[in-house]
Write a structure and sequence with these properties.
Elements (H helix, E strand, L loop, with lengths): L1 E3 L6 H8 L3 H8 L12 E3 L14 E6 L5 H7 L5 E9 L5 E2 L6 H9 L3 E6 L2 E2 L2 E2 L1 H8 L2 H18 L3 E4 L9 H17 L3 E6 L17 H7 L2 E4 L17 H11 L8 E6 L2 E5 L10 E3 L1 H10 L5 E3 L4 E8 L2 E6 L3 H13 L4 E5 L6 H7 L1
Parallel strand pairs: 3-4, 3-18, 4-6, 6-9, 9-10, 10-11, 11-12, 12-18
Antiparallel strand pairs: 1-2, 4-5, 7-8, 13-14, 13-17, 15-16, 16-17
Length: 370
């Protein structure tokens, strides 16, 4: 069901070979110019009425902001079981802060599709994660009680199915208190019929160093949450050197470590729905990669006569191109890399996968999930 374009291929020829109409290939793969396909491009080939079931009983989910385009959300929802609404915040006093845009339409759209909407709680302050907010919260029981009470009231009033806690850059000294807070949220939510997951940065050992990971204890959080979401992406990132956003060999290491601390049925693996475009040569501290969507990446390759390669170890597509006298390299996701990630989820019997995020088009991905 995956066809990799060869040099000289045309959509008409691919259609003849596969017995799938050109219009269907164009629609499913969101091809902007039917006269132009890219060597190395992976195409989803589904006959009219044919369906896939890549998740095969696992739980697919995805994060979205309330300002997501309704059409984009509509493309994804039929393939999902969870919709994570990003995000609620809180003040130093423990007051819950709603998203800037009303999310009720998303909650309604989710339930109409049989998808469970979850409230996401983050320590966002002025557009960034604030570990001082976390510190005040986890060290003060009165602030915790106030916030948890307001969270429960909001979940009940707005029709959420539960809560996802996404605290990043937790201070090392707050490691145990943070896990305890997650446990308190879970206890209160479970009593009222709601579930709680917690998002964690990728780790490969208990004593791993780094601002992102030292305050996160996989074992403790696994004991205190109904599910743990592994944020297995951002190896390739805005300010880092060019590489795959979620190289499968690196993702596997995180999953294997997590399984030594958390049961498989509580683990959810992260999947990126985006890529990066780096201008070369890369200079640390100077180069800033641009975020690109996966469909957009193929368009960039087509516009610049690039050939898409596929890294077998990372299980990720990439290409180089030259524009305005400058060299670029792009790493992104395609249906091959997505299939590889879901194969890993099934290999380790994890409970599901969640996409960060649903804000960019990727119709072929949702069609593959079924």
């Amino acid at each position: 069901m995956i066809y990799v374009v060869k040099r000289g291929d045309t959509l008409e020829e691919i259609s003849r070979q596969t017995q799938v109409p050109v219009w269907k290939i164009v629609y499913d793969n969101q091809i902007s110019d039917r006269n132009r396909v890219v060597p190395g491009q992976a195409l989803l080939i589904l006959k009219p009425g044919e369906e896939m079931d890549l998740a095969r009983g696992r739980m697919p989910g995805g994060y979205a902001y309330p300002f997501v385009e309704p059409e984009l959300l509509g493309q994804a929802l039929p393939a999902l079981k969870e919709l994570l609404v990003f995000s609620y915040g809180f003040t130093f006093e423990g007051d819950l802060v709603p998203p800037l845009h009303n999310e009720l339409w998303m909650i309604e759209a989710a339930w109409n599709r049989g998808v469970q909407p979850l409230m996401v709680l983050t320590p966002f302050s002025e557009g960034a994660f604030n570990n001082q907010l976390v510190k005040v919260l986890v060290e003060n029981e009165a602030v915790q009680e106030k916030l948890i009470g307001q969270m429960l009231e909001t979940v009940q009033d707005k029709g959420y199915a539960g809560v996802d806690i996404d605290f990043e850059y937790v201070l090392p000294e707050n490691r145990v208190q943070y896990a305890d807070f997650v446990g308190k949220v879970r206890s209160r939510m479970n009593e009222n019929g709601y579930r709680v997951s917690v998002a964690v940065p990728p780790k490969v050992s208990d004593d791993q160093k780094g601002l992102l990971v030292e305050g996160v204890d996989y074992a403790l959080l696994g004991e205190n949450a109904d599910a743990v979401f592994l944020m297995t992406y951002e190896w390739g990132y805005t300010y880092g050197p060019p590489m795959a956003v979620a190289p499968l060999d690196k993702v596997r290491q995180v999953v294997e470590y997590a399984l030594t601390r958390i049961p498989a049925e509580r683990l959810i693996m992260g999947i990126p729905n985006y890529g990066y475009d780096w201008q070369l040569p890369y200079e640390r501290g100077t180069t800033r990669a641009s975020t690109v969507g996966n469909v957009e990446a193929v368009d960039i390759a087509a516009e610049n006569g690039a050939v898409i390669e596929y890294a077998t170890v990372a299980q990720s597509p990439w290409f180089t191109y030259r524009k305005n006298g400058m060299d670029h390299v792009v790493w992104f996701e395609d249906i091959r890399s997505i299939e590889a990630k879901w194969n890993l989820i099934r290999e380790y019997n994890l409970s599901g996968g969640r996409y960060w995020n649903l804000m960019r088009p990727f119709r072929a991905n949702w069609l593959m999930l079924g």
